[in-house]
């Protein structure tokens, strides 16, 4: 099958082709003074606030298990701080911590003078590692000083949270 020969271009078509202009290519950057308008300030999501909450230990969690582990971690951190402040004996930790953690707290409580003001928990953060293990951190304040405690909690065979590792900052 033979291809058809090209059709001849009419004079009117040639005139239109020669008079057509090629548009100027756009610049890669806008000229000075022609920048896009700045974005508006980001809106806050509903239910968020920049104000500090009075008691961060009692926040509601969307997951009931996460709320339970957060409350348990906060309670165990309070117990550990009471031992550090020498308001409780280390015997209170027998069911809540391993012997290594208890020894560490006993050693550190001897270094803290009784004249120091008691420590106060500022915040507790909990992250699940597995279904039966969490890692938590606690920020505390004693007088003008702020310090942190990090711990790993696992569910014991009795179903209670048990501190297996501790780092005092």
Question: How would you characterize the overall build of this protein?
Answer:
- This is Alanine, arginine and proline rich protein.
- The protein has 169 residues and is α+β, with helices and mostly antiparallel strands.
- It has a domain of 106 residues: Nuclear Transport Factor 2, Chain: A, CATH 3.10.450.50.
- The protein is 25% helix and 24% strand.
- The protein is built from three helices and four strands, in the order H-H-H-E-E-E-E.
- Strands 1-2-3-4 form a four-stranded antiparallel beta sheet.
- Strand 2 and strand 3 form a beta hairpin.
- The N and C termini lie far apart (88 Å).
Q: Overall 3D geometry?
A: elongated
In the CATH hierarchy, what is the architecture of the domain at 63-168 at level 2? Roll
Structural Rg: 34 Å
Q: Please indicate the percent range of residues in DSSP E strands (runs of 2 or more).
A: 15-25%
Mean pLDDT: 76
Order of helices and strands: HHHEEEE
The tally of helices reads: 3
Q: List unreliable stretches of 5+ residues.
A: 54-64
Secondary structure category = alpha+beta
CATH fold-level assignment of the domain at 63-168: Nuclear Transport Factor 2, Chain: A
> What is the helix content?
25-40%
The strand count comes to: 4
Major β-sheet strand ordering: 1-2-3-4
Distance between the termini: 88 Å
Most strands sheet? 4 strands, antiparallel
CATH class placement of the domain at 63-168:
Alpha Beta
Biased composition (Basic residues): 50-59
Organism: Lolliginicoccus lacisalsi
Region (Disordered): 22-69
Pfam families: DUF6459
């Amino acid at each position: 099958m033979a291809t058809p020969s090209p059709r001849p271009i009419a004079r009117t078509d040639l005139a239109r082709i020669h008079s057509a202009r090629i548009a100027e290519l756009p610049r890669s950057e806008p000229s000075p003074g022609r920048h896009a308008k700045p974005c508006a300030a980001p809106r806050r999501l509903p239910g968020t606030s920049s104000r500090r909450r009075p008691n961060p230990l009692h926040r509601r969690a969307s997951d009931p298990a996460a709320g339970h582990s957060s409350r348990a971690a906060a309670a165990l951190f309070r117990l550990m701080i009471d031992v550090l402040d020498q308001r409780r004996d280390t015997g209170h930790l027998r069911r809540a911590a391993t012997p290594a953690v208890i020894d560490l707290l006993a050693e550190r409580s001897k270094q803290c003078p009784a004249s120091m003001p008691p420590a106060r928990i500022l915040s507790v953060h909990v992250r699940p590692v597995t279904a039966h293990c969490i890692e938590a951190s606690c920020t505390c304040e004693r007088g003008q000083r702020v310090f942190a405690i990090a711990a790993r909690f696992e569910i014991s065979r009795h179903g209670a949270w048990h501190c297996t590792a501790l780092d005092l900052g």
